[in-house]
Amino acid sequence: MALKDKYDVVIIGSGPGGLAAAISAKKYGAEDVLIIERDVELGGILLQCIHNGFGVEIFKEDLPGPSYAQRFINEAMLLKVEALLDTMVLDITPQRRIFASSKINGFVDIQARAIVLAMGCRERTRAQVRLPGTRPAGVYTAGTAQRWVNVEGYMPGKRFVILGSGDIGMIMARRLTFEGAKVERVLEVMPYLTGLTRNYVQCLLDYDIPLQLQHTVKRILGHQRVEAIEAVRVNEKWEPIPGTEEIIPCDTLLLSVGLIPENELSKKAGVQLDALTGGPVVDNNFETSVPGIFAAGNVVHVYDLVDWVTEAGLAAGKSAARFALAERRREIRHIPLLAGHNVRYVVPHELDKQTLMEEEVRLQFRVKQPVEEPVWVEVHSENNLITRKSERYVRPGEMVTIVLTPRHYEEVERATSLTVSIVER
């Protein structure tokens, strides 16, 4: 695929939000739409979510994650959405310039008229919940275990304790049971379930997996590998209650202790974040505080259903397309005024061609070097001389002015840029 220097809409991430945004942007008129994905294939986290529960609202069907993703991948390809895979975005500027690193394309520098942030979310780790104890192998996030089992084909252990009653943790309790593992316990520090009730019923109750509320891990025991965890009951302030400790033998501890919107790139772009959700502050068009940068899905806040992520992506893609088309129209109307030979700068920096239909436009500039003999001051397009005037001399300390009038409009209208130069007579 030959990359363009400029795209109408660029989407960062190809999960349900990113795919929906790309499709919507195309349908609402964006010509050049690009998805940048760090993985080797489109679909995002959906590819490892092989359980059912996707598409109930969008398709009125109960689909596994990969099937749900494939429907949107197929539609995106039919619409000729471009995709840059195995590519890591390094930086985004407030001017919507994207820098990325690609194994195939090397360093990538792309200008976007509009951007949709759809990076999703990441899991909290052991360090973020400050679990005490030794640091043996066998402590993983539930999502990591999900990828190993469902995509890579590896079992992370045989005997599990799961900390946290988030949806991924409960779903993995069932999945690991299917694979012959023993899930000893699910511990939840809060006095209530933090995931969906349906997952509690279908993944824990149906398989006789115990859930203990107001319990957490006091210590991780083991040297080379987890050998056990010490569980403890906590009070309403999350403080351990002495005398309630229990040693639970296991070889693996899975963490399902919450998700955090993935917004390192958002920060680099100068996007304002909500301290409570951890995601961008957006308006009803899903536009962030930076004009032309939109955000949708779990990068904004963590949704319960993938269908809702898709709906947010569709709305963000529509808004991004509208913004990009307005920028395209503006670019057609506005052309840059460039400093040519012996010209330091030109003000204004851009010319609104429509204005020139009705009134004259004064171009002012300073030269780099003095010329103490008669010169031409010229304004030319790519191929044609638009206008010129004579000056007896030019000096850096004295501003020079040249005027464009409505009679120049026809020639200027066909130009993509104008250059102001000093030419010796």
Outline the structure in words.
- The chain has 425 residues and is of the alpha/beta class.
- It has helices at residues 16-27, 65-78, 126-129, 142-152, 167-178, 197-204, 264-268, 306-333, 409-413, and strands at 6-12, 33-36, 82-84, 87-92, 97-102, 106-117, 121-123, 139-141, 159-163, 182-188, 211-213, 215-222, 226-233, 246-249, 252-255, 259-261, 293-295, 334-339, 343-347, 350-352, 361-367, 375-380, 385-391, 400-404, 418-424.
- The strands form 6 sheets. Strands 1, 2, 3, 4, 5, 6 and 17 form a 7-stranded mixed sheet that branches. It has a 5-stranded parallel sheet with strand order 8-15-9-10-11.
- A hairpin with a 3-residue loop joins strand 5 and strand 6 (106-117).
- The longest helix has 28 residues, at 306-333.
- The radius of gyration is 29 Å and the shape is elongated.
**Mean pLDDT over the full residue set:** 95
Strand segment tally: 25
Which spans of ≥5 residues are poorly predicted at pLDDT below 50?
none
Distinct helical segment count: 9
What percentage of residues falls in helices of 4 or more residues?
Answer: 10-25%
What fold name stands as the CATH topology of the largest domain? Answer: FAD/NAD(P)-binding domain
The proportion of strand residues reads 25-35%
CATH architecture of the largest domain: 3-Layer(bba) Sandwich
Radius of gyration: 29 Å
CATH homologous superfamily grouping of the largest domain: FAD/NAD(P)-binding domain
Cα(first) to Cα(last) distance is: 49 Å
Sheet having the most strands? 7 strands, mixed
